[in-house]
Amino acid sequence: MKNKRILLLVLIMTAIAISASGLAITMLYHTAIEQQTIRLTESAQRQVRLLKTMSLNARFSAESSPGKTFADSVLHDREAHELFKGFGNTGVFILAKREGNQISFIFSQSLPDARVPANLAPPLIVPLTGPLPMQQALAGNSGSIITLDYRDVKVLAAFEPVAELNLGIVAKMDMAEIRKPFLNAGISVVFATLLLVLLGTFLVRRIGNPLVRQLEENEQRLIAILDTAADGIITTDEQGIIRCFNQAAEHIFGYSSAEAIGNNIGMLIAEPYPYPLPNYDNQNKKQFIGNESEVTGLHKDSSGIPLEITASEVQEKNVRLRTCIVRDITERKQSLMALHQREEELRLIFEEAPVGIYICTLNGDILRANHTFCSLLGYTETELLAKHYTDIIHSGDLRKVETHSRKLLVCDSNSISLEVSFVEKQGLNIPCRLRGSVIHDKNGNPLLYVAHIEDRSEQLKTEQLVREHSERLAHVTRLSSMGEMATSIAHEINQPLSAIATYAAACQRLIDQDQPVLNEVPLTLEKIRTQALRAGDVIDRLRKFIRNHKSSRQQQGCYDLITDVISFAEVDAQYHQVIIHKELEPDLPSIYIDSVQIQQVIINLLRNAIDSMVTVPHLTNKVIRLRVKRQRDKTIEIAVIDCGAGLSPETGDQLFSPFFTTKPLGLGMGLSISRSIINAHGGQLQYTANPEGGSIFLFTLPIDARKSNATH
Amino acid sequence: MQHIKQTVFIVDDDEAIRDSLGLLIKSVGFEHETYHNAQSFLDNYDVESSGCLLLDIRMPGISGLELQAKMKGMSLDLPIIFITGHGDVTMAVEAMKKGAVDFFQKPFRDQELLDRIGQVFEQTQCKQQEQVEHQQALSRLETLTTREHEVMTLVIEGAGNKTIAAELGISQRTVELHRAHVMQKMQTNSLAQLVKMCFSLEECKQCKPIH
Questions:
Q1: Cα A32 vs. chain centroid, distance in angstroms?
Q2: How far apart are CA A308 and CA A295, in angstroms?
């Protein structure tokens, strides 16, 4: 295709070159003919003038010397001409005389016998009229003509008459001679042109082809880029007629490029996009040429497509081309919409959350606060946003908050939780639980704090109420168990009282004797005092145990706790002939507890154990084991192990339910309260059957790591 | 009358009670021994010794009541005065039914306890006296021949010599001779004394065997 075009081009160029040269040569040829004509005419006229002069001379000579005739003059002329080689190869003069109706040639250089004297040569006779130049000249005409002569050769001839002498002169020349150089020139031109054309073709092929190839490659590359571009690329002219339509555009609009090219871009765009209007003004142009703008496109199936268009304009010679880069933003729209929806959800969650939420910078300036938090503190949002977090947190809690916040930044912990008092607008403190976390940027650098605030006022009130109730209940239960222990306690007080009475009586007797024995009296009085104190101790312990005390926890050594509780429980145990056997590990730590409550639990368990052993008839070895040991440095485990009646499986299930009891006079609160006390201490109370018969009640108490230290 | 050595044995798990009782008893001049539990008392008790036992009802290990039962099983005839705590009346009653001498509820009046101990000691003294006499009678009885024993039995039943002679198929003279031997061997002057002695022996034989 391309080669054919080049060939055609070469042929046309060749033709043009040849025609141009031909034209030039032809013009030159005509000019040459004209010049020759003028020259021949002048030559002929010169001859005429010469002949006229000679004829005058002859007439004058005849008067002076009659020997001389005109014929002689002609002869002279002929001789003169014999020396004259004529012009060119074929140029000749011809002189003829009219004789009657015939023409008689006097001489002709062209005649083969021209050198023969005219008188000797037979005169050539031709009719007077005819087309020949001599005939014209003898007819009295002058001029020039291109005609065939008597040889039937095309000649250029000028003819002139010599009317006085009845003579005619013709100067003629063969046309072939005039034509010959031009013919040669023409042939040379043709050859030279062909040579140049061949050379040109060769050079075009040699130099032009790589350029063409490069252009082709560039174009292919451009096409490839256009077709693989993710965005639709549409090129239009100034009127909006589509010139280029890439694959992505086909994909977006559903038209093939063949369908699209040649149509107005308006068919791809739904209103109100102003782009396809051909006569847009400059201001309008600015709005979207070069800038991204969002429009609704039209798919082939007439559905709308959200598009983002970037248009640019290129001035290309006289044409302004516009390139539109079109991107289908359906997905982006959808994700934007989803994003928007999500944002709205988050906003609602944020605003309507039942807990207060605020966001502050790392410096502590509050950036956002939700409705709940504003109303909690009694500020409007605007007022709150002007605050620093130190303005709304109780000054006593600031250090704690700072410490924890720093921890949040430094450590990898996701959130912190702490009790903080906030100060509301009126200056009142609101006890709250603050849960803080940090928002990080992509690189993991902290950006903002987020704090969730839960108003704990109500909760604290409720907790307080619950605590008071459970304390009251525990107290009632203690009183109840003391009631059950009343006999044992009375017995325990009675013992020292009896001893005191007996000691006193003995002393009296020792003194009252006729010979008083006094040496034992002081010692006995001391014993009396000891026993009185012993009775007092029992009463003191009893009072401590049953008094309505406020729950208060403190550090308590395990040994002290167990010793205290055993001395109290043993009253009952001894009364029922039960031995309590202590099994205490060495180096038990101290624990952070409410001693009275824990003692209540232990006494309750011991009493249950005693009761279960008493009901077994003929039980010889009534021993309760009170085992205290440490469990993996985390908890203290206290077990009360009896070998009494044990519990049936059904009983075991409902053991810890309130008002459940196996005792005829029991309240059924003991284990229920015990369990809640232990749970409140962060431990667990469990029952298992003793494999050797009887029951094991076992509870754990956490060792507070910060405060634990071995007690000996 | 010969005085025998009497001791107050005190068994109580409460040291103060033990100690004060000891002092009280010592103050009136009685002997006493104290034990902190039933087992140590049993381990150390000399069967020959006499007196009374002041025993606490509630004790770990062997309780007062159990000790009482054990002693009965071992035929240890030691009078027991129980000392009970408050509200152990049921147990005290049971103890009395099983032969305890008395029970005192703590705190007790010292004079009452001491008087009771004194009474028990006297009773023991009498009993001891009787027992000695009884032993003597028994040993005397054993010196009798079979014929003499037969004659004595009939005499006590109130039979006359004649009847005895007829019963035994021997002469009245022989009966009289035997009778004289019996009176001599039994070291009695009167028939009434002999009858009393034999009754007491018979009574004891029914009550419990004496070895």
A1: 84
A2: 6
User: B107: nearest CA in chain A?
Assistant: A498
Global pTM value: 0.47
What ipTM was predicted for this assembly?
Answer: 0.74
B134 CB within 8 Å of a chain A CB:
no
Residues A105/A124, Cβ–Cβ less than 8 Å: yes
Asked if the model's pLDDT at residue A122 lies above 90, the reply is no
Name the 3-class secondary structure at A316.
Answer: strand
Between CA A32 and CA A108 the distance in angstroms is 25
Same domain, B82 and B186: no
Neighbours of B144 (CB within 10 A): 17
- Cα angle, residue B51 at apex, residues B49 and B53 outer, rounded to 5°: 105
If pLDDT is split at 50, 70 and 90, which confidence band does A528 have? Answer: very high
Find the angle CA(A284)-CA(A287)-CA(A289) to the nearest 5 degrees: 95
Q: Which domains does chain A have, with CATH numbers?
A: 2-180 (3.30.450.20), 229-334 (3.30.450.20), 353-455 (3.30.450.20), 467-702 (3.30.565.10)
**Domain count of the fold of chain B:** 2
> What is the pLDDT at residue B90?
83
Quickly count: other Cβ atoms within 10 Å of residue A643's Cβ. Answer: 20
CB contact under 8 A, A577 and B17: no
DSSP E strands in A525-669: the ranges are 554-557, 579-584, 590-593, 623-631, 635-641
B:27-66 residues touching chain A, CB 8 A cutoff: 27-28, 58-61, 63
CATH of the domain at B168: 1.10.10.10
Task: Compute how many other C-beta atoms are within 10 angstroms of the C-beta atom of residue A297.
Answer: 22
For residue B180, tell me if it sits in a domain.
Answer: yes
> Does residue A12 have a pLDDT over 80?
yes
Please indicate whether, in this complex, the C-beta atoms of A575 and B58 are within 8 angstroms of each other. yes
Reported as type and span, the H/E element at residue B52 is strand B50-56
Query: Side chain identity at A22, as an amino acid letter?
Result: G
- Tell me: the pLDDT tens digits for A125-184? 666 666 677 777 777 788 888 887 777 788 888 888 877 777 788 888 888 888 888 888
Distance from CA of A485 to the nearest CA of B (A): 13
Residue A665: what residue type? Answer: L
Query: Are both B199 and B162 inside the same structural domain?
Result: yes
Best B10, B12, B24, B83 residue to mutate vs chain A (most A CBs within 10 Å): B24
Amino acid at A260: A
Whether omega for the bond prior to residue A181 falls within 30 degrees of 0, making it cis, is no
Would the CB atoms of B107 and A524 count as touching at under 8 Å? no
Reading the block at residue A387, the tokens are 């605050």
Q: How far apart are CA B98 and CA B92, in angstroms?
A: 10
Listed ranges A186-190, A526-530, A588-592, B60-64; the one with the highest mean pLDDT: A526-530
Tell which phi-psi region holds residue B51, choosing left (phi > 0), alpha (psi between -120 and 50) or beta. Answer: left
Instruction: Give domain status of residue B164, yes or no.
Output: yes
Domain span at residue B45 reads: 6-125
pLDDT by residue (tens digit) across B6-34? 899 999 988 999 999 999 998 888 999 99
Spatial neighbors of A372 by CB under 8 A, at least 6 apart, are: A352, A353, A354, A355, A356, A357
Q: Residue A674 is encoded by which pair of tokens? A: 């015990």
Contact A575 B85 (CB under 8 A): yes
Q: How far apart are alpha carbons B7 and B124 in whole angstroms?
A: 11
Q: Are A574 and B13 in contact (CB under 8 A)?
A: yes
Query: Where do runs of H (alpha helix) occur along A289-363?
Result: 330-352
Sheet holding A623-631, edge to edge: A579-584, A623-631, A635-641, A695-702, A685-689
Query: Where a domain ends, among B90, B125, B160?
Result: B125
CA-based nearest residue in chain B for residue A499: B17
The reply to whether residue A506 touches residue B107, judged by beta carbons under 8 angstroms, is no
